[in-house]
Amino acid sequence: MRRDGWQAWAAAVAVVGLGIAAPSPQRPANALTAAEAGRHLGQVATVCGTVVTATYASRSRGQPTFLNLDKPYPNHIFTIVIWGEDRKKFGRPEVELFEKTVCVNGRIEQYQGRPEIVVHDPKQIGVIAPEGRTGPVARGR
């Protein structure tokens, strides 16, 4: 997605709850699926999918949070990574975003053969509610 297109999408986003955004009712027209992301390494793009596994690795170096889209770990096909230094901006994403359909924007990189986007700002992640309607991020599970 072109940067100005992403900025327009982000500008339309309503920030909800812990600062994780709820986007426009539908995913961006040129968004990639989690399965397509690996063919776009090095590009800045929007990737959408459902968070099927979500883990806060509090005892690992860097205290990462991993949000896997569409296929669960260890067979994951795309991961959103939030490093511990940025985690306080996101609240508890492993709870708030689990089983939600999300879109994430950023540079698609590869780690151990799998595509990922490292996010630093909650505005990089938007939640798409069921039936395409927007809604607040759920509190707890």
Classify the fold: give the CATH topology.
OB fold (Dihydrolipoamide Acetyltransferase, E2P)
Number of helical segments with 4 or more residues: 3
Question: What is the mean pLDDT?
Answer: 82
Radius of gyration, whole Å: 14 Å
- Strand pairing plus helix content: what structural class? mainly beta
Explain what this protein looks like in three dimensions:
- The chain has three helices and ten strands, in the order αββββββααββββ.
- A hairpin with a 3-residue loop joins strand 1 (14-16) and strand 2.
- It has one domain: OB fold (Dihydrolipoamide Acetyltransferase, E2P), CATH 2.40.50.140.
- The N and C termini lie far apart (32 Å).
- The strands form two sheets. Strands 3, 4, 5, 6, 7, 8, 9 and 10 form an eight-stranded mixed β-sheet that branches. Strands 1-2 form a two-stranded antiparallel ribbon.
- Helices cover 12% and strands 35% of the residues.
- It is mainly β.
- It is globular and about 35 Å long.
Please tag this protein with its features:
141 residues, mainly beta, OB fold (Dihydrolipoamide Acetyltransferase, E2P), eight-stranded mixed sheet, 3 helices, 10 strands, disordered C terminus
Write the layout of secondary structure elements.
Layout: H1 3-11, E1 14-16, E2 20-22, E3 32-33, E4 44-56, E5 65-69, E6 79-82, H2 84-87, H3 93-96, E7 101-107, E8 109-111, E9 114-119, E10 125-128
Parallel strand pairs: 3-4, 6-9
Antiparallel strand pairs: 1-2, 4-5, 4-7, 5-6, 7-10, 8-9
